[in-house]
């Protein structure tokens, strides 16, 4: 539902937040990766004064050399190191810098120097919701597909998936536009369970994988809409409380823009894939296929050295940014839905 999400307009009667785009303009995201090419990331446990370690001077010198390389020189060096040679010049440059940074930090970590890790797993979510071709200002989007794709951040592999369709309550009849866009038919939603039942199965799926208990994890989305709008509205429609495990997430668009230093206009799903030398796999606007492709981008960013970390959250019904100075915490253990009544 990538591009269509951006075309959602009008007041959100059930959401106490201004439009997502306005929020993003007012609160630019904090940098998840170094603000300057010569300033590498540090772990959450490090203080700002820790940049005095000699490893950072070595990394800065390597970054300066990489900045002067041509695209062909970058491609040759990446090939020598058996790294991915796909992508535009800035992507290849970032990949090579991240490789050297990682090697240096691993070396110094073995000697008691700085290192950096965040989550064991990242869980990608990309909802599909009811929609009209021209959504009226008071249209309430209901979730009709709940997919999840699980990334193991240690092996950098997609290790599991979850998918269920959801029966809408307020607008049980899907529009022709919605069916054509998502590929979800009327029969699929009529045979599905209502949202609270599906959410309970999501919780069970997460619990079986010991996320939030044995393993540290975070939710990742393509933009702010999934959590701040769709899930927020759906919980109100279903008369259940917003799940605590989904109150903070990684907005991969912000992460991608900050890491590769590109404007927000170049962070659509299709554009991110293209710039990384990847092609879309599956059916566009299928929630599960979109989630898989978003996961592929996340894996590539991790391979390129980006430290994906939570950068947005919901608080009191409002969408807020999470500053990079905030402590890095995993999502809490998931629990069954609780009624608002």
UniProtKB/TrEMBL annotation:
GO molecular function: exoribonuclease II activity; metal ion binding; RNA binding
Name of this protein: 3'-5' exoribonuclease 1
Residue ranges annotated for the Exonuclease domain, each copy included: 121-307
Record domain SAP: where: 66-100
SUPFAM superfamilies: Ribonuclease H-like
Biased composition annotated in UniProt, kind: Basic and acidic residues: 1-29
Cofactor dependence: Mg(2+)
UniProt KW keywords: Cytoplasm, Exonuclease, Hydrolase, Magnesium, Metal-binding, Nuclease, Nucleus, Phosphoprotein, RNA-binding, RNA-mediated gene silencing, rRNA processing
Enzyme class: hydrolase
Composition bias type Pro residues, residue spans: 330-341
């Amino acid at each position: 539902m990538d591009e269509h999400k951006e075309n959602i307009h009008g007041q959100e009667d059930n959401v106490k937040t201004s439009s997502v785009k306005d929020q993003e303009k007012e609160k630019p995201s904090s940098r998840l990766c170094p603000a300057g090419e010569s300033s590498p990331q540090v772990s959450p446990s490090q203080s700002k004064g820790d940049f005095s370690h000699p490893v950072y001077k070595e990394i800065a010198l390597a970054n300066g050399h990489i900045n002067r390389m041509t695209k062909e020189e970058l491609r040759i060096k990446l090939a020598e190191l058996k790294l991915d040679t796909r992508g535009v010049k800035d992507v290849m440059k970032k990949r090579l810098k991240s490789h050297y940074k990682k090697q240096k930090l691993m070396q110094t970590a073995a000697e008691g120097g700085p290192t950096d890790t965040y989550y064991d797993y990242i869980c990608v979510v990309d909802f599909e919701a009811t929609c009209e071709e021209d959504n009226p200002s008071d249209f309430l989007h209901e979730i009709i597909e709940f997919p999840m794709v699980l990334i193991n951040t240690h092996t950098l592999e997609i290790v599991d998936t979850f998918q269920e369709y959801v029966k809408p309550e307020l607008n049980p009849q899907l529009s022709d536009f919605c069916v054509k866009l998502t590929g979800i038919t009327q029969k699929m939603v009529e045979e599905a369970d209502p949202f609270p039942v599906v959410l309970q199965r999501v919780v069970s799926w997460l619990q079986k994988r010991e996320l939030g208990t044995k393993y540290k994890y975070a939710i990742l989305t393509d933009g702010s809409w999934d959590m701040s709008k769709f899930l927020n509205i759906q919980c109100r429609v279903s008369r259940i409380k917003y799940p605590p495990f989904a109150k903070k997430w990684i907005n991969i668009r912000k992460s991608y823009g900050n890491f590769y230093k590109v404007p927000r206009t170049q962070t659509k799903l299709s554009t991110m894939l293209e710039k990384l030398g990847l092609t879309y796999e599956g059916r566009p606007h299928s929630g599960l296929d979109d989630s898989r492709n978003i996961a592929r981008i996340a894996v590539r960013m991790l391979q390129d050295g980006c430290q994906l970390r939570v950068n947005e959250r919901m608080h009191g019904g409002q969408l807020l940014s999470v500053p990079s100075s905030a402590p890095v915490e995993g999502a809490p253990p998931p629990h069954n839905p609780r009624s608002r009544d």
